[in-house]
Write a structure and sequence with these properties.
216 residues, alpha+beta, Adenine-n6-DNA-methyltransferase TaqI, Chain A, domain 2, 2 domains, 4-stranded antiparallel β-sheet, 4-stranded mixed β-sheet, 38% helix
Amino acid sequence: MKLSSTCEVQSGYTARTRLEPTTKGGVPAIQLRDLHGEEDFDPSGAHLYALGPSFERYWAGPGDVLFRSRGERNTAVAIAPGAKTAAIAILPLMVLRPDPKLIDGKYLAWFINQPASQRYFDKCARGTRLRMIPKGCLDDLEVPLPDLPTQKLVVEIDSLARHERALTQQLAAKKLKLTSFALLEQVRKAQPQGNGAGRLVARQARSPAGKVERTN
């Protein structure tokens, strides 16, 4: 099913001048630079801006999806389902409002971020210096629609896989740090004893079992 049949697609608010945050009298708004990675976004911390009239249709709230229509990668971010507030999306962001009977917002964001979808955007991207995805291209993206429980299961498994990868990276970093510390301690111990001890350290590092080899 085409994406436009699964959700409402709304281009972001067009700012006529440079937006400067204000402390009073403004409305919360989300700019492209506010989004980092592909994790859910909570608009509760969005800056306030003094926007012109008629901005009501640009609100993005829980369950909605923000699409990066410009940039090297045209990925999507879901507004956190548990978010307590909404905010105005500023171009080049687009707001996708999924039909809750058809598609889960987090599933939609997940599918947009998949390599196959990114290759599709590569074919219809416009511009050379500033890559842009036209709204019509986004509308025509074919989105597979399993039932809602399956969609939620896909999102959950993806989240667990990402968490596992993060833990694996943390473990690898700690192992590298521990190895570096152990080697440094060996070097410090070997330094006053001359080259003979230094060769012993080298043999220990190369030994699969980490055993000390005897020397004659």
